[in-house]
Backbone:
């Protein structure tokens, strides 16, 4: 699970009177008390690789915009939404998502966007550096989907048929692997998700994730996605979900 400055300068108000008598009888005003705003609750995580590390599957410009603009906006907006409600101060992102149906839409949209992207970056790795599915994960995929190819076909189908913007997920629920998809920035941790579970793999199918390189060809993007999956990370998430 991912667990996930404004500064106010005080001005010195010291006054140095010209006459010594005035200096003795009139003390200089005390300096204003320095105050600092609390640190932001959530921060934008650094990418675990260079912007161009996923080429040719995902280009550097897409990564720069996706991470530095889209994800950053989710973080900034989430912090603003949390700061507006003192009752939410100090809560972990997973705690917010777990009761998001009771919270403002800004928490749902931006909290989901922050959590989803923070996970997504770790699920990607440069070509040839992502490892392979572990024996345990491979066995579970065969048990629950019939074969690795059948699993990829079903996962791509969920991602391709997600209308508009959203995500496709591989989750562990009730001891089994399941494929699901969510709209917008929803995820399977949310109390309002149609299917809840522990995510172990995800793909972002918002157009900003692929449009510069693939335009409207989402299927081509998904084919390339499999070349940069970080199976080492997926294996750890699967083991943690058992």
Residues:
């Amino acid at each position: 699970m991912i667990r996930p400055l404004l500064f106010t300068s005080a001005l010195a108000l010291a006054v140095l009177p010209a006459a010594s008598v005035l200096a003795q009888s009139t003390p200089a005003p005390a300096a204003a008390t320095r105050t600092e705003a609390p640190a932001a609750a959530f921060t934008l995580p650094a990418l675990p690789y260079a912007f161009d590390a996923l080429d040719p599957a995902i280009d550097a410009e897409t990564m720069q915009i996706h991470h530095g603009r889209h994800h950053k906006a989710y973080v900034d907006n989430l912090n603003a939404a949390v700061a507006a409600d003192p009752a939410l101060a100090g809560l972990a992102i997973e705690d917010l998502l777990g009761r998001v149906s009771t919270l403002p839409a800004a928490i749902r949209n931006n909290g989901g966007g922050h959590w989803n992207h923070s996970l997504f970056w770790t699920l990607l790795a440069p070509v040839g550096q992502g490892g392979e599915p572990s024996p345990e994960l491979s066995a579970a995929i065969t048990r629950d989907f019939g074969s690795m190819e059948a699993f990829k076909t079903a996962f791509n189908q969920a991602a391709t048929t997600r209308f508009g913007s959203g995500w496709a997920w591989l989750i562990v629920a009730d001891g089994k692997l399941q494929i699901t998809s969510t709209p917008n920035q929803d995820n399977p941790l949310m109390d309002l998700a149609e299917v809840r579970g522990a995510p172990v793999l995800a793909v972002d199918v918002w157009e900003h994730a692929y449009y510069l390189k693939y335009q409207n060809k989402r299927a081509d993007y998904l084919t390339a996605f499999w070349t940069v999956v970080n199976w080492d990370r997926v294996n750890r998430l699967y083991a943690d979900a058992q």
